[in-house]
């Protein structure tokens, strides 16, 4: 029971997908919620207090999706820029809703202290279908590379390019869900023609730091703020979280740029990727949103105090 065929209905075990398999996978994806109703309407409600701009548009046969960024209204060229991204994986709901909640309830607290740039839903096609990949069966969060094949990733990189050299923080909001193990990792194994090897989903919040710029005190400050809202994920029996060694409570490290991860797209001194566990019996959806908000606040507060 450790082959892709045992877990995923698309493709032939041991053979990477071609165009027919990708088309078969795409045909399985259905709209389950509304980007316009759940995200764009909330962005529109912020227009009186913040500057909202469209920085791109996804163009798929199934439809077009405008991409929006929210900025501090009183942008000050003398201040550092703080980037918050959510919904790089569209199915990770609290990343999107947490980013929007942060803007609505807390962004004004940072007026005159920094410039905020928030891209709350990088992958709206995936948001509507509760899907990790985009319509081409590509993972946007492995596609932040030059000449990216993912529209979502390319658009975000173009948004931040003019501001390189000015970023102090980039915090990218994510979730680790039970569906990672039941759907998305089996799909990945099937797509790439590899065997599926079951893993363990951590129960709680954790962070992924950049192994080339880990900033451990910053990561600990973010987790300390989140711990006021929800629980931090413990290490498994091997001292790991999702297969990576735990370097501090609730912290693992990845080589962000080498993997094409979103948190690598700026030259910010402080970067991190949040991971909330929405399927925990010990956390509600509201707590998951609040955990993302707390993480953003913890990141900004630490960075402003340690510029």
Automatic annotation (TrEMBL):
GO molecular function, one term: metallocarboxypeptidase activity
Domain Peptidase M14: 31-307
A GO BP annotation: proteolysis
CDD domains documented for this protein: M14_REP34-like
Family label: Belongs to the peptidase M14 family.
Protein known as: Peptidase
Source species of the chain: Stenotrophomonas pictorum JCM 9942
Classification of source organism: Bacteria, Pseudomonadati, Pseudomonadota, Gammaproteobacteria, Lysobacterales
């Amino acid at each position: 029971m450790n082959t892709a065929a045992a877990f995923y209905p698309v493709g032939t075990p041991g053979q990477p997908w071609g165009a027919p398999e990708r088309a078969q996978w795409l045909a399985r994806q259905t709209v389950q919620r509304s980007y316009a109703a759940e995200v764009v309407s909330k962005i529109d409600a912020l227009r009186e207090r913040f500057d909202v701009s469209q920085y791109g548009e996804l163009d798929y046969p199934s439809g077009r999706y405008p991409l929006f960024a929210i900025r501090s209204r009183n942008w000050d060229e003398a201040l550092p820029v703080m980037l918050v991204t959510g919904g790089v994986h569209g199915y990770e709901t609290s990343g999107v809703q947490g980013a929007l909640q942060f803007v609505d309830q807390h962004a004004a607290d940072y007026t005159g202290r920094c410039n905020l740039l928030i891209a709350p839903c990088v992958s709206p096609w995936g948001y509507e279908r509760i899907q990790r990949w985009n319509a081409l069966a590509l993972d946007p969060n492995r596609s932040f590379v030059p000449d990216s094949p993912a529209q979502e990733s390319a658009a975000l990189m173009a948004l931040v390019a003019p501001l390189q050299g000015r970023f102090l923080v980039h915090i990218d909001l994510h979730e680790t869900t039970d569906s990672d193990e039941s759907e998305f990792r089996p799909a990945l194994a099937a797509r790439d023609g590899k065997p599926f090897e079951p893993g363990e989903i951590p129960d709680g919040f954790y962070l992924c730091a950049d192994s080339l710029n880990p900033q451990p005190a910053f990561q600990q400050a973010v987790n300390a703020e989140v711990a006021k809202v929800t629980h931090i994920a413990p290490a498994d029996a091997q001292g790991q979280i999702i297969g990576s060694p735990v370097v501090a409570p609730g912290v693992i490290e990845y080589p962000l740029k080498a993997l094409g991860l979103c948190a690598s797209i700026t030259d910010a001194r402080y970067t991190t990727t949040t991971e909330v566990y929405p399927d925990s019996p010990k956390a509600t959806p509201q707590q998951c949103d609040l955990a993302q908000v707390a993480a953003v606040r913890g990141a900004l507060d630490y960075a402003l105090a340690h510029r």
